[in-house]
Write a structure and sequence with these properties.
23% strand; Beta-galactosidase, Chain A, domain 5; 638 residues; alpha+beta; 45% helix
C-alpha cells in the first residue's frame, strides 16, 4: 500500500469520525428527545388506562345484564362454554359456544418446534397486560335496545357433524341469529342469518366486525420471522398491499376490501368478504422478544348485513400454509362462483420484474426439483447450478468485455502519457473512446451483462425465505433450512452478532471475499493516477462488503445463506476457468485483426457508445466556448 492510499484511508476515517461526532445529538437534543419519548409513553399509558376503564364499564354492564332476568340478553349471558370441533385431514378448527366463533386452529400436516401439532392461534393467547384474541360481531340494536356484541354471549350448537355446525344465538321465542359454518379443506365458510329480529335490530345494513389476534412465533429465529410477519390486505379493485413489518403502524381505509390476512412467515389467517368489507381499520404492533409472540394484530371493519334475514352475510376464512399452489387452489373456492380471490398475493415475491421471474421461472424450477424427492440442500445446489448455467452466457460476455479492456491497456497507457494536462482531459477521453470503437471494445460491455443477472439474484433473495418446503428440513449441520444454523452459539447476545454464528453465512462471506479478489483482478486499469486511486478505493470497499454481509445475514435463513455460498463458489470457479480459457494476448490479436479488417469500413457504434461520444463532444464544445469567453473578457479588461 503506497503513501497516498494510506493518507486516503486516514482521511476517510477522519471524515467518518467527524460525521458521527457532528451528527451526535447534543445534551439538549437528547433531553428534548427524552421529553418527547416520555410524552408519547404518557399518551399511550393514558390510552391504555382509558381502554381498561372502558372495558371495565362494559364488563360491569354485562354483569348487571346477567342478573337482570328481564334483559333480552339474560339467557345468552348465562351459559356453559363448549368447544365444537370441525376437522378434516388438513386442519382442525375449534369453535366455542362462547362467542360462537373460531377459538383455535390446528394444522395437522405441520409441526411446531417441539414436534407437536402446530397451533396457528388460540383464543387464550395473551401477552402480559394485553387483551386476549377475539373475533367479535356487533349488531346495532333498535332505539332503546343495546347493541349486541357476540364475544360474551353463549350460542347453542345445532346440526353439528364433522365438517359443519350451526351456532345459534337465541334472544327470545323464535328470535335468533345463526352462524353457519362449513369446513372445506383449509377454507371455512361462514354465513350469518337473522330470524325474526326486526323488533330488536336496527335497519342498519352493516354488521361491525372486531378481529384481534396475536401472531405466534412458530420458527426459531424471532428477528427473521418477524420480517415476514405482517397484515396484508387486498382492496377490491387493486393489488394487495401490507402494513410495515419493521415498525408499528395503523391505517384507515375508505376503499372497500376483499380480504385481510394476519400473516406469519409460513402460515396465514385470512378473512375474506363474501361481498366486500368497508370502513376498514388495521393496526399492527411489535411484541418484544421472549414472549413467544411476534406481533399484535387487530382489524375492524363492516360487512353487509340484512337484519330482515332475507339475505345471508357470507364470510370465508383461510387457515393454512403460505404455499403458493395451495393458496392459488383455494382462490377458486370463493362464495361467489367464478370469483378469483388471488390469495397467493400474500406471498411477497418482489417488484414486478422480480416477481415475474419468481412466479414463472424459479417457482416451477424449484417445484420440479422438489418433486424428485431429494434433500432440500441438494435441491438448492441443483437450483443454483441450473441458474448459473442459464446466466453463464452473460457472465462470459462480461468477462470477455473486461478482458478486452485489459488487453488494450498498453494503448491506453500511451494515450495517458500523451495527454498529461488537465485541460486535455476531454481530448484524452475522446481518443480512448475512439480506441475502444476501433478495436470493438466497450466500457459498458462488462456492466450490462452483470445488470441483466441482478433481477435473478434479487428474485432468489425474495423466493428462498418464502419457500415453506424448506421449513424444518435439515442439511449438514443445519437443522432447519428456513432458519439460521446455530452450530456455534452462546447464551449472552453480542452487539451486532447476537447469540450465534451462522456457518453458512460465514462461508458465504469468505467466498465473497475470494470472489472479490478474482473480480477485482478482472477490472482493467482506466489509466491515470487519480483513476487508479479511485479503483483502489473501490476494491477496498468491495472487500469491506462481505464483512457487512456477515452482520446483515447472520440471522437470515440457512437456506438463503447456503444458496449464496454455493452461488458465489460457482462464480469463483467460473472466473478461474474463464481466466485460463481466454488468453488476453490471443484476444488482442483478434482485436487487432478486427481493427485492420474494419479500417475502411468501421463498425457501427452502439447506441451507448454513440451517446457517450456525443456527450463528450458537447463537453468539448462547452469547454472551448468557456475558454473563448474567458479570453474575450481578458482582452476587454486590457
Amino acid at each position: 500500500m503506497d503513501k497516498r492510499s494510506i493518507i486516503g484511508y486516514v482521511l476517510i476515517g477522519i471524515v467518518l469520525i467527524g460525521y458521527f461526532m457532528l451528527n451526535q445529538p447534543s445534551a439538549e437534543d437528547m433531553a428534548r428527545q427524552q421529553r418527547y419519548n416520555d410524552s408519547i409513553a404518557i399518551v399511550l399509558k393514558n390510552k391504555e388506562l382509558a381502554e381498561k376503564a372502558q372495558e371495565q364499564i362494559r364488563l360491569n354492564e354485562i354483569e348487571a345484564q346477567k342478573n337482570d332476568s328481564t334483559d333480552i340478553l339474560f339467557n345468552a349471558l348465562n351459559g356453559t362454554e363448549e368447544t365444537i370441533i370441525l376437522s378434516n385431514d388438513l386442519v382442525k378448527v375449534n369453535i366455542s359456544t362462547l362467542g360462537g366463533t373460531v377459538s383455535s386452529v390446528i394444522l395437522k400436516e405441520y409441526r411446531n418446534q417441539q414436534g407437536s401439532e402446530l397451533v396457528m392461534f388460540d383464543k387464550n393467547d395473551k401477552v402480559a397486560g394485553k387483551e386476549r384474541n377475539t373475533l367479535n360481531f356487533v349488531f346495532e340494536g333498535k332505539q332503546g335496545v343495546r347493541n349486541i356484541s357476540t364475544d360474551n354471549l353463549y350460542f347453542t350448537a345445532l346440526d353439528r357433524n364433522e365438517n359443519s355446525v350451526t351456532m345459534r344465538l337465541a334472544l327470545g321465542t323464535d328470535k335468533y341469529v345463526d352462524f353457519r359454518y362449513r369446513l372445506n379443506g383449509y377454507m371455512l365458510d361462514m354465513h350469518i342469518d337473522a330470524h325474526n329480529m326486526d323488533d330488536i335490530l336496527s335497519t342498519k345494513k352493516d354488521v361491525e366486525i372486531e378481529w384481534r389476534q396475536y401472531a405466534r412465533q412458530h420458527e426459531p429465529g424471532y428477528e427473521f420471522e418477524q420480517r415476514y410477519t405482517n397484515i396484508t390486505y387486498k382492496p377490491t379493485n387493486d393489488d394487495s398491499d401490507y402494513l410495515s413489518e419493521m415498525q408499528d403502524e395503523s391505517e384507515k381505509f375508505t376503499e372497500p376490501m376483499k380480504w385481510i390476512a394476519f400473516k406469519n412467515q409460513f402460515f396465514s389467517c385470512i378473512m375474506i368478504a363474501g361481498n366486500e368489507f368497508s370502513d376498514v381499520n388495521l393496526d399492527s404492533r411489535k411484541i418484544e422478544k421472549g414472549q413467544d409472540m411476534l406481533k399484535s394484530f387487530s382489524a375492524s371493519m363492516n360487512a353487509p348485513f340484512d337484519p330482515t334475514g332475507r339475505d345471508a352475510t357470507g364470510i370465508q376464512f383461510y387457515f393454512g400454509p403460505n404455499r403458493f399452489g395451495t393458496l392459488q387452489e383455494c382462490s377458486g373456492m370463493s362464495l361467489n362462483a367464478g370469483d378469483d380471490l388471488e390469495l397467493e398475493e400474500i406471498i411477497y415475491f418482489g417488484w414486478p420484474i422480480v416477481r415475474w421471474i419468481n412466479r414463472y421461472f424459479i417457482m416451477y424450477l424449484f417445484d420440479g426439483l422438489s418433486g424428485l424427492g431429494l434433500n432440500m440442500g441438494l435441491v438448492l445446489i441443483l437450483l443454483t447450478i441450473i441458474v448459473k448455467v442459464i446466466v453463464y452466457p452473460f457472465t462470459k460476455k462480461s468477462y470477455v468485455s473486461s478482458a478486452k479492456m485489459r488487453a488494450l491497456k498498453p494503448y491506453i497507457d500511451e494515450i495517458n502519457a500523451k495527454y498529461t494536462k488537465k485541460e486535455d482531459a476531454l481530448k484524452k477521453q475522446q481518443e480512448i473512446m475512439g480506441l475502444y470503437s476501433k478495436y470493438g471494445a466497450s466500457p459498458m460491455g462488462g456492466c450490462l451483462p452483470m445488470l441483466i443477472q441482478m433481477p435473478v439474484f434479487i428474485a432468489l433473495f425474495n423466493f428462498v425465505p418464502n419457500a415453506i418446503e424448506l421449513r424444518q428440513e435439515s442439511f449438514l449441520w443445519a437443522h432447519d433450512l428456513s432458519a439460521y444454523d446455530s452450530l456455534i452459539s452462546w447464551d449472552q447476545p453480542i452487539w451486532l452478532i447476537g447469540n450465534h454464528i451462522s456457518i453458512f453465512c460465514l462461508l458465504f462471506c469468505v467466498t465473497q471475499i475470494v470472489n472479490t479478489y478474482y473480480t477485482s483482478r478482472m477490472q482493467p486499469s482506466m489509466g491515470g493516477s487519480e483513476m487508479e486511486q479511485q479503483q483502489k478505493m473501490m476494491r477496498w470497499m468491495m472487500y469491506l462488503m462481505p464483512v457487512m454481509f456477515f452482520f446483515m445475514f447472520n440471522d437470515y435463513s440457512s437456506g438463503l445463506n447456503f444458496y449464496y455460498f454455493v452461488s458465489t463458489l460457482i462464480s469463483v470457479g467460473i472466473f478461474i476457468y474463464l481466466r485460463r480459457a481466454i488468453k488476453e494476448d490471443e484476444l488482442l490479436k483478434k482485436m487487432e485483426a478486427y481493427a485492420v479488417s474494419n479500417k475502411n469500413n468501421p463498425a457501427k457504434k452502439s447506441n451507448m457508445m454513440a451517446r457517450l461520444e456525443a456527450l463528450q463532444e458537447q463537453q468539448r464544445k462547452l469547454a472551448e466556448e468557456q475558454e473563448r469567453m474567458r479570453n474575450a473578457r481578458k482582452n476587454k479588461n486590457k
